[in-house]
Design goal:
The structure is a single chain. 41% of the residues lie in helices and 16% in strands. The chain has a 6-stranded mixed β-sheet, with helices on both faces. A 4-stranded mixed β-sheet has the order 4-6-8-9. It starts with 14 loop residues before the first strand and ends in an 8-residue tail after the last helix. By secondary structure, it is of the alpha/beta class. It has 2 domains: 15-209, Alpha-Beta Complex (2-enoyl-CoA Hydratase, Chain A, domain 1), CATH 3.90.226; 213-259, Lyase 2-enoyl-coa Hydratase, Chain  A, domain 2, CATH 1.10.12.
């Protein structure tokens, strides 16, 4: 990351952000368009994720949304050349194809807090996050085939989460599944009643933020790096990462705190 990013003075149009207690919350804010991802939203998400990566004071990112739909995927108006004037002053950082990569390369916990339905390209967000908490009323679908399209970009992350055969049938026929089925197929971490959604995500994000932040980053970096390696390739790499972690300030503090029978104080 070549330049230090700042949120000061920027005008955000499609995403709202807030930082509190080491947690950055990003809220998709196009409810009238079912939070469909246009170029403005994609760029604002990427900018915030890049900002979260550089900031030591941000340990967890929560992505949520306004309205009855969490996200309807890519904006079809954008795909057909439509757009419109934007008031956003967020510097350009990338487009929709970069969102999944930015979430994975963040190397920090990313929690999806879905209050509404997850449709089409929104699955890219779901499958890239480390945790997904949804209400029991949420449905999931990849209906692109019914519009003469195909969820190409979604496939990069979908089949790293869902079983191969059921995932392929899911996108080939474009049918909906409920939250419990999504959990059974690996799309979702936890399903809760809507009145428990806020508290559940708050507790989860607080717990994750309280854990060794440097080690968390190293661990997630290793997790994604070894994902496509053979076991023979992964073992020496993971041994190197273990040595790096043991020498880190987090491990030194954690071991000292354990031996001294006290709570660790992460830097």
């Amino acid at each position: 990351m070549s330049a230090t990013l700042s949120l000061d003075g920027l005008v955000f149009e499609a995403v709202e952000w807030a930082v509190s207690d080491y947690v950055m919350t990003l809220t998709l804010n196009r409810p009238d368009s079912k939070n469909a991802i246009n170029m403005v939203m994609a760029n604002e998400l990427i900018y915030c994720l890049d900002y979260a990566k550089q900031e030591r004071g941000i340990r967890v990112v929560v992505i949520t949304a306004k309205g009855s739909v969490f996200c309807a995927g890519g904006d079809l108006k954008m795909m057909t050349g439509g757009g419109g004037v934007t008031k956003s002053t967020v510097p350009s950082r990338g487009d929709t194809t970069d969102i999944s990569r930015c979430i994975r390369d963040l190397y920090k916990p990313v929690i999806i807090k879905a209050q509404g339905h997850v449709i089409a390209g929104a699955l890219m967000l779901i499958c890239s996050a480390t945790h997904v908490v949804v209400t029991d009323e949420v449905t999931f679908s990849a209906p692109e085939i019914k519009r003469g399209l195909w969820p190409y970009m979604v496939m990069a992350s979908l089949f790293r989460v869902m079983p191969r055969r059921v995932g392929l049938d899911f996108i080939m026929r474009g049918f909906k599944i409920n939250a419990e089925q999504a959990k059974a197929w690996g799309l979702v971490s936890e399903v809760v009643p809507i009145l428990e959604l806020n508290e559940t995500v708050a507790q989860l994000s607080s717990e994750l933020a309280s854990l060794a932040p440097g080690t968390m980053q190293l661990g997630l970096e290793a997790f994604y790096h070894q994902e496509d390696q053979t076991v023979k390739e992964a073992l020496p790499y993971l041994q190197q990462m273990l040595a790096k972690t043991i020498a880190s300030p987090d491990a030194q503090e954690g071991i000292s705190a354990f031996l001294q029978r006290r709570e660790p104080k992460w830097r």
